[in-house]
């Protein structure tokens, strides 16, 4: 059975390590934000598939986009990145009560 003092020492060390971020004293690397390409401004509020900076498909729902991409050439859809283009004037409503 451990003494109370040894348990306290262990718990104190754990708390200090947790507060430090458990990173083994490695500096935290900050990544700069990537600006949204101007070509995506036309597709606000839609799901788009992008290959080499070109929009190959755009739909209002992800299900419709997946169905549309399924009909495409497999070489093109295999390299596509699918993302939702958030509207720039998107407002959020928070309800209380």
Summarize the structure.
Helix content is 32%, strand content 15%. It is α+β, with helices and mostly antiparallel strands and 97 residues long.
Describe the structure.
It is built from 3 helices and 3 strands, in the order H-E-E-H-H-E. By secondary structure, the protein is of the alpha+beta class. It has a 3-stranded antiparallel β-sheet with strand order 2-1-3, with helices on one face. A hairpin with a 2-residue loop joins strand 1 and strand 2. It is extended. The chain starts with a helix and ends in a 13-residue tail after the last strand.
Structural class: alpha+beta
Largest sheet: 3 strands, antiparallel
Provide the low-confidence segments as ranges.
none
Helix coverage percent? 25-40%
Write down the overall mean pLDDT. 77
Count of runs of 4 or more consecutive helical residues: 3
Using only C-alpha atoms, the radius of gyration works out to 24 Å
What is the general shape? extended
The total of beta strands comes to: 3
Strand order of the largest sheet: 2-1-3
Main traits of this protein?
97 residues, three-stranded antiparallel beta sheet, alpha+beta
What is the topology?
Layout: H1 4-20, E1 47-51, E2 54-59, H2 62-70, H3 74-78, E3 81-84
């Amino acid at each position: 059975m451990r003494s109370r003092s040894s348990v306290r020492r262990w718990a104190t060390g754990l708390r200090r390590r947790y507060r430090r971020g458990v990173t083994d004293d490695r500096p935290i690397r900050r990544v700069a934000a990537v600006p949204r390409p101007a070509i995506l401004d036309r597709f606000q509020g839609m799901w788009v598939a992008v290959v080499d900076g070109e929009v190959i498909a755009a739909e209002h729902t992800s299900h419709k986009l997946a169905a549309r991409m399924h009909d495409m050439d497999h070489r093109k859809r295999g390299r596509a990145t699918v993302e939702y283009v958030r509207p720039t004037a998107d407002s959020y409503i928070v309800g209380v009560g």
